[in-house]
Specification:
By secondary structure, the protein is of the alpha/beta class. The protein has a single domain, classed as Metal-dependent hydrolases (TIM Barrel). About 35% of the residues lie in helices and about 15% in strands. It contains 9 helices and 9 strands. The strands form 2 sheets. It has a 7-stranded parallel beta sheet. α6 links the parallel β5 and β6. α5 runs parallel beside α6 and α7 packs across α8. It is globular, with a radius of gyration of 17 Å.
Length: about 270
């Protein structure tokens, strides 16, 4: 039942490959399916250079449907979305989520975006991180999202100075609020390729998530077919070390849990 739960399309302007190509790698890796979660369109121009336009949204739905039909019976392909969140976006996100039947909705805060920096930047990296973790909690509290994506992405804003211990109070308060909503959180393997080369989240935050019973969803954040399920074996090691005995997926926006050993057995090289 293992799926790639976080992947993109060329419509976001910084990914390559059609969903059919991602499906081919998923089949080779032993996955049951993929959920396409490209960056959502925004109606206010927010970071327009890294996402589809509102006018392109029907094209997005159509290309996922085309791939679903082409791979039916081999790889299960589902429609999802990765939605940026900052305070004030709630009305548009609610509208967007009514525009199609999604199977997995990721909520993301992207602190590296120029639009985010312009609005929330601080000369104090710990203040900036506190703002970021506040926004993660607020995202979960909207009730819009199944999973909060790459939940310590802010460590790449100041990789040389990052120390989770310096902001652990903010992290814990954030996780307490997310746990109260029942929202899942992601372990995103693409963090291994970022400025701070560590999965998102790192081990300390992941252990805090487990302590609070927050479900964990694996995603490779694939922006190219070769990244499908990348480092999933390592992610399973990390979540097991943190105390989890299962990982989760979402289909029809319903969480399904998969024992870690079952997930290991499904993966193929």
């Amino acid at each position: 039942m293992l799926y790639e739960m976080h992947m993109h399309t060329p419509l976001c302007k910084h990914a390559i490959g059609e969903p059919e190509e991602y499906a081919a790698i998923a089949e080779r890796r032993g996955l049951a399916g993929i959920v396409v979660t490209c960056h959502n369109p925004c109606n206010d121009g927010w970071s327009q250079g890294v996402r589809m336009s509102v006018a392109e949204f029907p094209q997005y739905v159509a290309l996922v449907e085309r791939a679903r039909k082409a791979w039916a019976g081999r790889v299960d392909i589902r429609l999802g979305i990765e939605c940026d969140y900052v305070p004030g976006m709630e009305p548009w996100i609610e509208t967007l989520l009514g525009m199609a039947e999604f199977h997995h909705v990721l909520g993301s805060v992207h602190p590296q975006l120029p639009d985010y920096i312009a609005r929330f930047a601080s000369d104090d990296a710990t203040v900036f991180a506190a703002t970021y973790f506040e926004h993660l909690a607020m995202a979960a509290e909207t009730g819009f999202f199944d999973t909060i994506a790459h939940p310590d992405l802010v460590k790449n804003s100041d990789p040389a100075g990052w120390d989770a211990g310096l902001v652990i109070g903010d992290i814990r308060r954030c996780l307490d609020r997310i746990a109260a909503t029942g929202t899942a959180m992601e372990i995103n393997t693409s963090g291994l390729n970022k400025l701070y080369p560590e999965m998102n989240p790192g081990p300390q935050m992941l252990a805090e998530m487990c302590e609070r019973g927050i479900p964990v969803v694996m995603g490779a954040d694939a922006h190219g077919p070769a990244r499908v399920a990348a480092n999933y074996e390592d992610a399973l090691d990390h979540i097991s070390a943190a105390g989890y005995n299962h990982t989760s997926i979402f289909l029809d926006r319903q969480r399904r849990d998969i024992p870690i050993e079952q997930a290991r057995g499904q993966l193929a090289i």
